[in-house]
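Morning. Coffee machine broken again, so started the prediction first thing and wrote up yesterday's gels while waiting. Chain of 373 residues, entered below exactly as on the submission form.
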Amino acid sequence: MKVNIDSQCGRARATSIHWRNHTVQTPMFMPVGTVGTVKGMLTRDLREAGAQVILGNTYHLYLRPGLEVLQHFGGLHRLMDWHGPILTDSGGYQFFSLRENTKTTDEGVHFRSHIDGSRHLFTPERVIEIQNVIGSDIQMVLDECPALPATPQVLETAMRRTTSWARRSLAASRESDAAVFAIVQGGTDISRRMSHMEELAGMEVSGRSFDGLALGGLAVGEAPQEMYEVLEAVAHQLPAERPRYLMGVGRPQDLLMAVASGVDMFDCVLPTRNARNGQLFTSTGRLNLRNASHRMSDSPPDAACGCMVCRSYSRGYLHHLFRAGEMLGPQLATIHNVSYYLALMRGAREAIMAGRYPEFHALQAAGWRGENS
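Came back before lunch.
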């Protein structure tokens, strides 16, 4: 994986990342397609919105459709008709969110399926093997994600296991030419974050090191300001020659703060999940389509947005779809939200290239402080 730094503005940076036959530009938001679909969107919609990379999830894809189906179709790309890069999470966050069904040991994670209660074991090696079957272009190592706040002992255990699992993952990954990213833990303890980052950045097994580093274990119970302090102290210290990925963090204001700290890549379910509940992200703040104030509105959802939804439909129509329980409502809301996130990152990149990222950041923040409806 080769990273070209195209421009910097303060700590914010615009890069071009090259690997396999792919080139992507950052800052970049990656829509989440947990089980082989970004809910409510065709792959055509994703391409038209400008998505560069989408996510799949190792835990969920392993359970459904299962490895037999993925092998039959030659991987997830062909199964879902997506020809761009796919990043797969390792399942570590699912073990955090479904922890009542898991038991974590130094060997790996023993868990019961949330679907049928069947028993399974994910080791670092098995997780890489599954991602090879999926055919992902960026593979994440198995990590332990502790809930915050956490005691020093809990943080140390998670870091120790994540380091051990990272070393085992790096050895196992030699079967594939996919990029492999390590995950930095440490909670909100900056010294622990720095120590863990340095350990993973310097790790090498049989001549191979990690292609990129991710910051995991944030937005898991801590206050936003605590997360910002970690990002400000740590993100720009991640190796400049490798991609910097902030996992699972996704309010628009969080993304722009992280870009200012030096982060390149993002993912989050927020734009798709909130869309299904009738909430849009716009240049003037969040908009609740269920509010009666939109019933007679012929205004677009966001006058500053150029997505196909804002070009074609009114707030009144979207309000009607949600009140009537029509499936088209969540679909259109999802297309808008994902398009908005992708456009926000393109705008951030343009601002960095022009040397005016602080002005761009301030302008966006001022818009969000406007009236929400």
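The first strand starts at residue 2 and ends at 9. Going to sketch it on the whiteboard this afternoon.
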